[in-house]
Amino acid sequence: MTINEVFRIGGDVEVRRIGFGAMRLADTEHERSRAAAPVWRGPADRATALEVLRTAAESGVDLFDTADAYALGANEELLAQALHPYRDGVALATKTGVLRPSAAEWIPHGHPAYLRQQAELSLRRLRTDRIDLLQLHRIDPGYPLADQIGALRQLQEEGKVRHIGLSEVTVAQLTAASAVAPIASVQNLYNLAERGHDAMVDHTARLGIAFLPYFPVARGAHAADGGVLAAVADEVGATRAQVALAWLLHRSPHVIPIPGTSSAAHAAENAGALRLSLTEEQVRRIGAGVPGDVPV
Asked: One Pfam family of this protein, by short name (predicted)?
């Protein structure tokens, strides 16, 4: 099965369909390995983090996703240090709408003035005049959704934001937000083992809205020795992570996985998943979690 290698977010931001999620480029190696990494400070090994970002770009990645909440803005500064001046075609995606009063707290905050202020700070840290994709990190139930999206729309009208996206939303919330401003993307948790947003994948496909699955590489039974990813990886001469990403690419042409890593080698490996072709039988087998070559 062949796949489309590019997708136009919002109809005009053309990106290759493997992006890079920069969240993991924070803290120490020990902290990153924890189940709930704090993402509180910049990377202890800054030189390696810069190498990871530059390797991703050299491997063809042109969509880089970050957030103002990652390391209190230091993640955005890291991205700019690695890639600025940005080559033609690089698309910057960031998120706003979460407070970090401590390393353990992630608190949605959707006051419209706060969202606009944080976008201004993101512009400075990213060293750009316009953010290609500004995503509402979380909807804050304390403020009307129309006011939160309206703040992002104001930034868009001012030319500071190209497209608006949402993160961790339902179909109903997407519909409500779309009544206020055009929504170009949705970023939800989705991978082989976590498919609770299947309905959102299908819904955004119908609307032509980009779907950016975060934590896209499945862990657990799917990735275990003797599991389906191991079997298909052996068949196609790839790694299990590449097969997991390829399955997402085959899921729908509007799906753009944004895997993150703190390893330059893994960044290049992830980008290589875009060249991996799976058969229809392999795609079905992976989706069903069946390691052997049996009908599903």
From this structure: Aldo_ket_red
Q: How is residue 189 annotated by DSSP?
A: B
Distance, in Å, from the CA atom of 163 to the CA atom of 153, rounded to the nearest integer, reads 9
Q: Where are the chain's structural domains? A: 6-217+252-276
| Two structure tokens written together for 2 | 């062949």
Average pLDDT score, the chain = 95
**Amino acid sitting at position 251:** R
d(Cα 271, Cα 94) in Å, to the nearest integer? 20
Point out the residues that are catalytic: 70
Q: How many CB atoms within 10 Å of residue 7?
A: 20
Across 248-265, average pLDDT = 98
Nearest to 259 by CA among 251, 268, 180, 250: 268
pLDDT recorded at residue 294: 37
> Integer distance in angstroms from the first to the last C-alpha of the chain?
17
CATH superfamily membership of 6-217+252-276: NADP-dependent oxidoreductase domain (3.20.20.100)
The alpha helices in the chain, defined as continuous H runs, are 29-32, 46-58, 74-83, 112-126, 145-157, 171-178, 198-207, 228-236, 240-251, 264-272, 280-288
- In the DSSP assignment, the letter for residue 263 is -
Q: What CA–CA distance (Å, rounded) separates 137 from 69?
A: 9
Per-residue pLDDT, averaged over 89-96, amounts to: 98
Q: What is the pLDDT of residue 295?
A: 31
